[in-house]
Fold these 3 entries.
Entry 1:
Amino acid sequence: MTRTEDLVKRLPNDIGGLEAERIQQTDHELEPWEKRCHALADVLDFHKIINTEEKRRGVESLGAEMVGKLTYYERWIVTFANILFQKAILTPDELAEKMEEVAARHSKSSTQ
Amino acid sequence: MPTHDDDHGHAMATAQDDSPPGYYEIMETAVRELLVERTLIGPGEIRRQIEVLDSRTPALGAKVVGRARVDPDFRKRLLANGRTACEEEFGISFYDDTELIVLENTEKVHNLIVCTLCSCYPRPVLGLPPDWYKAKAYRARAVKEPRAVLTEFGTIIPDDVEIRVSDSTAAVRFLVLPRRPEGTENFSEEQLASLVTRDAMIGVVPVQIPTRSLS
Amino acid sequence: MSKTSRGASKPSIHAVKPFGEQPSFKAGDSIKISIRYPVGHYRVPHYIRGKRGVVEAVIERAFVNNEEEGFGHNAGSLGYYYRVAIPLTELWPGYAGSSKDGLRIEVFETWLERN
């Protein structure tokens, strides 16, 4: 029987030495938003708004399912949102409203 | 000094296609704009950092290796302190405030780098890592069966050569100084640099002289 | 500032260093990675815990403990990381490669014990 404490003790990213398949030598050119996301991480770290280690911890905190299913930069941006909420820099509603506004821009412009 | 950003900083992508932004892109845009509105980050900072990132490619690392091959004093300084040597010789800034240890491959030792916990990589001097470096298979297996991993890249290391796998977990980053291939005795520094690939500086392949096809 | 006359013994300097300013380990020291299971964030992977190795080098410059940095601790007390060498045969029972093959990994002082 699996003890649940193993879920707490071992982080989802702590995979050194675990069984894994052949290496798929894939790569992809970053989408513009992904590159902006990477730049955002660097800028947040410079200002120590979210330092790089906080980002790592935040990604771990997403939990195994999200870590497994979200792509690399998807994990980052969700992590930034979470940490900004925790630090009371943004509220969830503020972000949600802004996201609605951003989404509406595209649908507005596409109907012109 | 804020630059004159287009559209208050939000039309930043060179939108080559009209497909609607996905959920995460919308999130990224919203977070960025809110932070700029709150003056927590400046409007030109992201754009500038993208320029920084675009300027950091494997060509930088290759240049470092090329110089090390022809300048023994630089090589010595590079092996003593990778960050300082790169900063002083080439003005390569370490914007992520990491240190750099350069690992020299010899006939007795072959070095390989990995980050099992995440994706630590010598970005200031190599640019962004390939997807496979960040994925589970490489991270899980490089520390456990490096020889099998190297074989998958087509690299066979003899048994009498020691393999050292460096797992980056803290603020130090690694760059492999790969062995100089035979037959390059008369190559110029630029020619030597042009042979050095990203994967050779990760340590998964050697530096090779490209074979010319005889037509 | 004290001046000494020729022949007089120099006053000794007694400047006590705070915790963390002096590395506790040095190259060549035999160490063991601690075994403990912090809740949440850590930077010492499971596969090296309890394993024995040798300090190859003190990483020069002292740093904030990154496990605390992960919770926003950006400055303050610093400590040292050590580049530790651990043979792959120590890490993996039945390791099939050369017995000379080894891991190099940076470990913060708080996770090292003398072996």
Entry 2:
Amino acid sequence: MFKDLDPILHSQLRLAVMSLLISVKEAEFTFIREKTNATAGNLSVQIQKLKDAGYIDVIKKFNKNYPQTICKITKGGVKAFEEYVNSLQSYLGKE
Amino acid sequence: MEEKELNEKESLSLISEMIQKAKSSFHESGTSAILWGSVTAVCGLLSFAQVQFGFSLGFDVWLLIFVVIIPQIYIIIKERKNKLVKTYQAAATDNVWLVYAISISAIAFYQNIVPGISDKLMLDEGMQLLQKNIATGEVKDYHFFIPSLSSVYLIIYAFPTIATGLINKFKPMIWGAVVCYALFFISLYTSFKYDMLMLGLAGIANWLIPGLILRDRYNKNIAC
């Protein structure tokens, strides 16, 4: 019996964001937007969903009077990501 | 990026692609390494030249190190603020260099404080060290000094460079540190004059050359 894939992570943009954040300590919003080629509006919505799920922390601050949004993965996010990858691998292994 | 239903293979492929993008996103500018390499090379080579050619600049040239600390701190703060991403490697490397800064400062204090304190502690015990010229029989005061401390500096120079090279898999820094360790072994057998020459060469091998390579890569990446 396969485990259901986490619906929060099983979305293209949210999975891309989590894959970026799992590889780095923290990343700024513009960096994530550049790497995912997402629109600012869509990315903001998906980041908020990841934050609401407790998978990422979002820190808002100012740098030279410009707002900055820093995102970093939480311990819960790392665990969910690992479980998601394990589930994917078990699906592929059974094919 | 468009929202679409992913199958398992596409999901794994997306994860792998994003991890690669994140890994290739961080590029060190090399500014700090160039700055430290230049000042160490100038200080070491000038110290050597003063003894070799018998002239004096009239001040301790190594004080330039402290002059460089101010722009160094400015560069670190500026680069940190402008970084859009912080990798785990960068965080580990920052900590290595912080430990280096503490260690090198501590050794500078040790070098300047321990000889004087040792003299005082001996005098408190009612003792004094004397040196005798066995040819003339002349007896003079002997003051504590720390022999071949430049060798210790060479080990300390190599430590953050090799750690940074290994963490970031950056061979020029690994080789620079290897050169520094080789200079350390040579310095065990050489006089102060050549120790100064080796400190200068260590600055070039350890920081200046890797820093220039980093700068070249950074500029190419910016141009892309």
Entry 3:
Amino acid sequence: MRLKDISINNLRRRKGKVFFLILGLTIGITTVVTLISITRMMNEDISKKLDEFGANILIIPRSDDLSISYGGMGIGGVAIDTQTLKDSDIPKIRQIEVRENISTISPKLIGVMDIEGKKVALMGIQFQEEIRLKKWWKIHGSIPKTREEVLLGNEVAVRLFKSTGETLPINGKPVRISGVLDETGSQDDFLIFGDLAFIQEAMKKPGALSLIEVSAFCNTCPIEEIVRQISKQLPHAKVTAIKQTLQTKMEALDHFKKFSVGISIIVLLIGSLIVFTNMMASVNERKREIGIFRAIGFRKSHVVRIIFLEALIVGLIAGIVGYLLGLGVSQVIGPMITGVKGGSLFIDPLLAIGAISLSSLIGILSSAYPAIHASKMDPTTALRAL
Amino acid sequence: MSLIEIKNLKKTYESGEECVLALTNLDLNIERGEFISVMGPSGSGKSTLLTILGGLNHPTEGEVVVDEIPIYKLPLEKLADFRREYLGFIFQSFQLIPYLTVIENVMLPLSITEKSNREQMKMAEEILERIGLKGKGKRLPDQLSGGEQERLAIARALVNSPPILLADEPTGNLDSKTGKEIMALFKTLNQDGQTIVMVTHNPENTAFSTQTIFLRDGRVEENGTKI
């Protein structure tokens, strides 16, 4: 027989009280796991919908000369031919510490050219990157697949009297119009989109970029941190966060996180109090028994170990049950609270270990005073019958 | 050198502003293999003497030396180790652990030793057989008769083979027939060399003791030695 057998047998004897003890702690752990899971659901939802919000970081050359406006943001240097952003800047963005949070990088070159006697704005883009950012684009025709194909904004197509399948002379070369955009209500309606390398060549600006749009999301760090890291990599550029829908969502998430922390602390404090009062009552009920242990040679540390072992067993059970219940509850009430449809059950070993450790820790810390109190009991007082 | 030497023992208790004298001027030597009975009216200091001998109650003055160890000079945790190695306690009202089985109750003092489960089990079964409780190891204490519970308390006290057995009113809760059986068991244990110190109210229980001490008001009134 070992001390653990005494602890286990005592817990078995007090089934009813132990049930409520475990229940109290389980409710606390369930609440914490539920709130953490719901917070993650919200985080993941924002992450998944990121592309719908478009780019959230704009990189432009550091210049005071703002001559062209794009999306409400000034684009410096375009009008005066200064080229401070280059293709070679893109790999540098991919080198920042939180690079795994970067979803899309879309470089652009903007310029004005004479086409069939009319001044038209052209934008060189990487189509595969651009369509990831602009999921709302509706194209009559298809996305350009070769360098000799372009996509026309709705307004510019009307101005040039062109439609899908026709050709257009750019820098003397005929290019095919693969598609025309439906009206977007944005600056895209006034642009001709061509392959970036082709437009760079046509404008005689090889490797040059007017701006870079970046779509990034970081669950654990603010967007400002990503902006700071990119700025460090590109000292010659001005990096700006576009605060829009995402910001509102992030703020809501931040409020929910703070609310979750507050609720978790309160519930865990109540759980600790339940453990404390239950263990204290148990120790007082067992005065005689503790007196017998001490009389037959148990050290104070042996008595403390018996109480702590009981607390640990209770904590482990409450931790496991609380984690599983928390997972279940978050799947049921998570979608109701967040509006996010419940996905597959995500079992995170770290959260499981964290929940079980937290529960065990609360069990032991809340039992510390009762355990020390028990070990200090005078055996002669405890054994009044002697 | 005696197994137990009690020198000029004095014990007082604080009760509010009053100081109650429990034991005073007590000198006593107990040799190995002796069977000491301590008698006296209630409040005479019998239980105080037993708890002081048991290393549970620090004396106000004087010294208790067991096997040349001045036990109250030991640090508290060492005193606990001393109790485990040297003493077997038989408490009034048996004081068994109700949620442990008979064999687990017997193994209780062994649970904090290095002994393996197998060794513990073997030692417990041997003592249960010797004490007359063979085959009842899996029962709970409340499934035993009063006499069996007393035997179980004796088995738990002896499982460690302690040099000294301390018993407080071992027949106090038993009918006279069972009480006689228990005293016969004590006699056998003593004949096998066990040193016993027993507190009792019942003069019949002193029949097998080698020395009987009568206490009154914390002093030794009479010290009768038999052969």
